[in-house]
Amino acid sequence: MRLLLVSTELPEPSRGGSKCLHRLLIGIPGMEVEVLTHERTEISWPWPVHRARRGWLFYKYWHSRFGTRLQNASLAHGWELPSQAALRIVRAARPDFILTVAYGPALVSARRLAEHANLPLVSLFMDWWPDLACIHLGAPRSSHAALEREFIRLHAASRVSFHFSQGMQDELGARPGDAVLLPAGGEALPASAPGDPSVLAYAGLATGMYAESFAAVVTSGSRRPGDRMEIMGPGLPQTLSGGLPPGVRHHGFLRGDEYAEILGRAGALLVVLPFDAENRRLTRTSFSLKFAEYCRLGRPIIIWGPPEAAIVRFATETSSALVVTNSRADDVWAAFQRLQGQPALAASLADGALRAHSRYFATKVVQALFADTLEAALSQCTRNPLS
Description:
Blueprint lengths: L1 E5 L9 H10 L6 E6 L11 E3 L4 H7 L4 H11 L6 H10 L3 E5 L4 H12 L3 E5 L3 H8 L7 H14 L2 E4 L2 H7 L6 E2 L15 E8 L7 H9 L8 E5 L15 E3 L5 H9 L1 E7 L7 H6 L3 H7 L5 E4 L5 H9 L3 E3 L5 H12 L1 H19 L1 H17 L8
Parallel strand pairs: 1-2, 1-4, 2-3, 4-5, 5-6, 6-7, 8-9, 8-11, 9-10, 11-12, 12-13
Helix pairs in contact: 6-7, 12-15, 15-16
């Protein structure tokens, strides 16, 4: 099976959605994935990576002082047509599917290219892009309705939609042939001794939509003097710029052995989500990659977030984490202290996390669902590529 990835999000092993994409697409037997991008890129990829400039008018103005307005308008209204260079790449690659991530300007490019090439479109819905763009990434609030129309239009145009949470599928609507595809959390790790029950660890973003909840946990008066918090991530909320309380340590952004060592010595791992109304749909539809990665570590996990959040629903249904669903940060520390006082509960939650990894988040499990769903769709398609 051959796929042509046309996406703003490109597969790289280092961060967020790019990491999800990399884990999903690398190493599936019998599948080749070429990449088509409008921008310069230096990604390391086992198959061809093509760059096709936009049509001459878009290329002329895309990076000019009018560029931001053009990009927003193009995305909102689907103006951009496939360039001749892009169409030539499709002819040469002869893919079975056009693949895209429902994120950024390329979601329009992918849909239009699939239409012009008469090829089935496959879309990965990781986040509710219109909310993410307008709340957190600087897109004008006035463009939200138009962005949402294009986002939903992509779903309607897709032969297969993969929803990265049950909440995403509930929001977009389930159709025959679609699938809920949770993010791959990486390979299982060797069993290790229990961590220090006095250490709570947090890895990932602590700014943006997570800042308020994260700062509330760090500054909570309910943390006992003997409890410590280890934090890994690229930055801290502005409200913590004056310094961290005693017993709380920020290690910055770590990878590899140092990252695994800190998480491995923790007694429990923490995920925080926003409770404000503005971010409610994002938490309901987005599935935390952090949680999927935590599950392979065999440590009890505490999730603090609203009850309708995607990972809260999942953890409740699978008994893979201890959930705190009210907005009081003090209750996070109460949950942590409960784990300290109930070793059997902590061990049960650790086992539940490992079971969730083996059943839902192991890379081979996620890849098998992805490949099987596409094979079923391909068997029903009449292949009629651009000629």
